[in-house]
Amino acid sequence: MPEADEKRKRAHGLLTRQALLVAAGTVFSRVPYADARLKDIADEAGISQGSLYFHFGNKADVAKAVLEEQQARMAGVLLRVTESERRGLERLIRLFSGLAELVATDELVQAGIRLAVQPAIDVEDEARTPYASWVLVAAEILRDGVEDRSVSGDVPIGQMAEFLNEVFVGAQTLAGLEDKWASLPARVRAAEPMIRLLLSPQREHGAA
């Protein structure tokens, strides 16, 4: 019985923490980080402030957890794409498409993006670090594409990885300003032909 009780407590604790993260995502999507209060997050989750403090020591801890969860959800898209698509070019296209759909529909991911573009000093590192990681992800996929010949062998991997991330972040920023990311999937689809043109091996033959 004590072991069963302990398992129930752990499960309840995980559910409470997840509810707080979802609530924090809602609050951070609604108001700037500087204006958000822990009471707002607790009220949104329907949980006491005491329970909130049990899981998170302060507002910065909550913000960091939201940013971590945002990246975990984005990494989940990468994992699913990697498992289902082997060729580099198609993997890259599907990754951008999947991330665009996630950003357009997931409020917690949107909250992480808001935090990243208006970082407070206590979450600045957590907000900025992921960008470099996604550049590395794009570079790895491009290398795989060169190996499987879905990507042109003369593509400058590092520069192209940076450029592609800039394209995605630019589309993400414009969609966020225009319609709270609803148009991001369409913007990414519109960019797909140009991405294929830049990366496809067929362009080598066309240039020749």
CATH superfamily: Tetracycline Repressor, domain 2
Counting DSSP E segments of at least 2 residues, the number of strands comes to 0
How helix-rich are the residues, as a percent range?
A: over 70%
Discrete helix count: 10
* Mass-distribution shape: elongated
Assign the CATH class. Mainly Alpha
Number of domains: 1
| Category by helix and strand content | mainly alpha
- Radius of gyration in whole Å, from Cα? 20 Å
CATH topology: Tetracycline Repressor, domain 2
The secondary-structure element order is: HHHHHHHHHH
What is the correct CATH architecture?
Answer: Orthogonal Bundle
On the 0 to 100 scale, the average pLDDT is 91
Q: Low-confidence spans: pLDDT under 50, at least 5 residues?
A: none
Tell me the span between the first and last alpha carbons. Answer: 75 Å
- Biggest sheet: strands, sense, closure? none
Percentage of residues in strands: under 5%
Q: Would you write up a description of this structure?
A:
The chain is mainly α. It has a single domain (2-199), classed as Tetracycline Repressor, domain 2 (Orthogonal Bundle), CATH 1.10.357. Helix content is 81%, strand content 0%. The protein has helices at 2-30, 38-45, 49-55, 59-84, 88-105, 107-117, 124-148, 157-179, 184-199, 202-207. Helix 1 crosses helix 4. The longest helix has 29 residues, at 2-30. The chain is elongated and about 60 Å long.
